[in-house]
Amino acid sequence: MRKEELTFWEQLYIPQIYEGLKVTARHFFKNMKGHIARLLGRPVKDDETVTIQYPEERRPLSPRLRSLHRLVKRADGTPRCVACMMCETICPARCIYIVAAEHPNPDIEKRPARFDIDLGKCIFCGYCVEACPEDAIRMDTGILEFAAYTRQDMIYTMERLLAHEPMKITSQG
Questions:
Q1: 121 has a pLDDT exceeding 70
Q2: Could you give the CA distance from residue 89 to residue 127 in angstroms, rounded to a whole number?
Q3: Half-sphere exposure of residue 4, counting CA atoms within 13 Å on the CB side?
Q4: CB-based burial of residue 161 (10 Å sphere; 0-12 exposed, 13-18 middle, 19+ buried)?
């Protein structure tokens, strides 16, 4: 394949740099107009500014978004998990730890005596949700901010996972 020779003008890249600066300036002044209008208390359309005023303003979350885990409860408040170890086995990050115990109900074989997820290791792949035959683990809390000061605080126990509720989906439009 023959390489096409550039002209002297093309080798300077001045027209390409000028076109890039023109696009950047157009977006800059469009955003600045919207931000000044917002500062003055005037209404601003959503498409007038590219940036959002986080954390006061938040983007709507997709219902398919994988967020912090939760364990689903039975009607009596106990976890739906039957400690089958499918999620622990399939987890590529090896961040799920389950200790099984006998369930007091003879219809249910096992229950988790301990169910921990180390979010410091989790890669949020969602394999645990897909592998669960009881639909006992979900990633639909909508919680995205779960930073901690220590590694130990990143380990979510069964009680913490049972305390989470599913994300409330608001209609848009």
A1: yes
A2: 10
A3: 4
A4: buried
Spatial CB neighbours of 65, under 8 Å, sequence gap ≥ 6: 142
Q: Name the residue type at position 138.
A: R
CB 81 within 8 A of CB 111: yes
Query: Tokens 């005023």 identify what position?
Result: 53
pLDDT tens-digit profile of 70-82? Answer: 999 999 889 999 9
Angstrom distance (rounded) from CA 62 to CA 31: 26
Amino acid at 79: P
- Do the strands 110-118 and 137-138 form a parallel or antiparallel pair, or are they unpaired? unpaired
Q: In Å, how far are 9, 10, 11, 16, 69 from 5, measured between CA atoms?
A: 12, 10, 10, 17, 57
Task: Say yes or no to pLDDT of 173 above 60.
Answer: no
Rounded CA gap, 82 and 117, in Å? Answer: 16
Q: Give the pair of three-digit tokens for residue 64.
A: 């398919």
- 76 with 62: CB under 8 angstroms? no
- CA distance linking residue 164 with residue 136, whole number of Å: 13
8-28 pLDDT tens trace: 888 888 989 999 999 999 989
* Residue-wise burial string across 64-77, b where 16 or more C-beta atoms lie within 10 A, e elsewhere: eeebbbbbbeeeee
